[in-house]
Amino acid sequence: LRQKYIDAIAGAGDEATLEDLRVQAVGKKGEVALKMRELGKMTPEERQVMGPKLNALKDEINSALAAKKSALADAALDERLRTEWLDVTLPSRPQRQGTIHPISQVTEEVSSIFADMGFAVAEGPQIESDWYNFDALNIPPEHPARQEHDTFFMHRDAGDNRPPHVLRTHTSPVQIRAMQAQGAPIRIIAPGRVYRCDYDQTHTPMFHQVEGLAIDKDISMANLKWVLEEFCRAFFEVDEVELRFRASHFPFTEPSAEVDLRCSWQDGTLKVGEGDDWMEILGSGMVHPKVLAAGNIDPDVYQGFAFGVGIDRIAMLKYGIPDLRAFFDSDLRWLRHYGFAS
Ligand code: PHE
């Protein structure tokens, strides 16, 4: 019996076989237990000899089982170590990194240039009441400028008596909000999304503007001109720029000017500050007295200038991008081509 089990245990190839052997040999109904039961029929002398022998056999089988079990576990571990190894010296696979969207990069850049000139960043809602978007900016209902804005109107059910709202068509309503919130003097920019129902190579229904507003007791067009020149030098990274102030009309500024930048196109890239072309980059003017009044600022004491720049537009100019719509296509090949993604 002893030899049978010791040999079988030594030859067992896995834990399941080992467990079967344990049950057969030293389990409750195993062969050793059967032999123990026979002790009862023996004479006391025989029992004194056989009892200890059977106990010793049981111990021996149990320790053989335990030894074999740990040997099997060691072998399994060795096998895993042999097959599941990693070569930590292999070069890692390249990981593509996300990058900041070009419009966000340009917005950051614009904000930091104006921060250097003492302008803080202000914000307003993208769903704006038509009072802030139009009336307060001296664009009453029926004013032709309302039609020119290609406005998206928020739907209202019959009986809804909340004031009418629109998707803001420009960042100028933030002028009014800033005036009401902080009073004069003011020096802010307001970058953000604006919406107009328009779509072609140079227009998308959502685009970005940055508004500028400076109000104090002795602000003039001369301050506006310097701030814009300083901005263009920093943004286009040139030593000298030339701006052309072209008389224009906005209901919320008087006088109003559209500002063009002297430039030229050389092999598809823009050269700023030289050449015979003029590129329109923004609208501006002195804040209309009615607009100051709507913002609770006394127009007899304070004046200010305001301007609005198309962020997407100056980003296209700076990076030589011909189609504005590409900014919103999320095409990685395009982003990589312009160096906006890795
Ligand atoms: N809000 C004007 C636009 O969207 C731009 C502008 C801003 C003009 C401030 C003058 C002053 O076209």
UniProtKB/TrEMBL annotation:
<keyword id="KW-0648">Protein biosynthesis</keyword>
<dbReference type="Pfam" id="PF01409">
    <property type="entry name" value="tRNA-synt_2d"/>
</dbReference>
<dbReference type="Pfam" id="PF02912">
    <property type="entry name" value="Phe_tRNA-synt_N"/>
</dbReference>
<keyword id="KW-0460">Magnesium</keyword>
<comment type="subunit">
    <text>Tetramer of two alpha and two beta subunits.</text>
</comment>
<keyword id="KW-0436">Ligase</keyword>
<dbReference type="InterPro" id="IPR045864">
    <property type="entry name" value="aa-tRNA-synth_II/BPL/LPL"/>
</dbReference>
<dbReference type="InterPro" id="IPR010978">
    <property type="entry name" value="tRNA-bd_arm"/>
</dbReference>
<dbReference type="InterPro" id="IPR004188">
    <property type="entry name" value="Phe-tRNA_ligase_II_N"/>
</dbReference>
<dbReference type="GO" id="GO:0004826">
    <property type="term" value="F:phenylalanine-tRNA ligase activity"/>
</dbReference>
<feature type="binding site">
    <location>
        <position position="254"/>
    </location>
    <ligand>
        <name>Mg(2+)</name>
    </ligand>
</feature>
<keyword id="KW-0963">Cytoplasm</keyword>
<keyword id="KW-0547">Nucleotide-binding</keyword>
<keyword id="KW-0067">ATP-binding</keyword>
<dbReference type="InterPro" id="IPR022911">
    <property type="entry name" value="Phe_tRNA_ligase_alpha1_bac"/>
</dbReference>
<dbReference type="InterPro" id="IPR006195">
    <property type="entry name" value="aa-tRNA-synth_II"/>
</dbReference>
<dbReference type="InterPro" id="IPR002319">
    <property type="entry name" value="Phenylalanyl-tRNA_Synthase"/>
</dbReference>
<feature type="domain" description="Aminoacyl-transfer RNA synthetases class-II family profile">
    <location>
        <begin position="104"/>
        <end position="329"/>
    </location>
</feature>
<keyword id="KW-0030">Aminoacyl-tRNA synthetase</keyword>
<dbReference type="GO" id="GO:0005524">
    <property type="term" value="F:ATP binding"/>
</dbReference>
<dbReference type="GO" id="GO:0000287">
    <property type="term" value="F:magnesium ion binding"/>
</dbReference>
<dbReference type="GO" id="GO:0005737">
    <property type="term" value="C:cytoplasm"/>
</dbReference>
<comment type="similarity">
    <text>Belongs to the class-II aminoacyl-tRNA synthetase family. Phe-tRNA synthetase alpha subunit type 1 subfamily.</text>
</comment>
<dbReference type="InterPro" id="IPR004529">
    <property type="entry name" value="Phe-tRNA-synth_IIc_asu"/>
</dbReference>
<dbReference type="GO" id="GO:0000049">
    <property type="term" value="F:tRNA binding"/>
</dbReference>
<protein>
    <recommendedName>
        <fullName>Phenylalanine--tRNA ligase alpha subunit</fullName>
        <ecNumber>6.1.1.20</ecNumber>
    </recommendedName>
</protein>
<keyword id="KW-0479">Metal-binding</keyword>
<dbReference type="GO" id="GO:0006432">
    <property type="term" value="P:phenylalanyl-tRNA aminoacylation"/>
</dbReference>
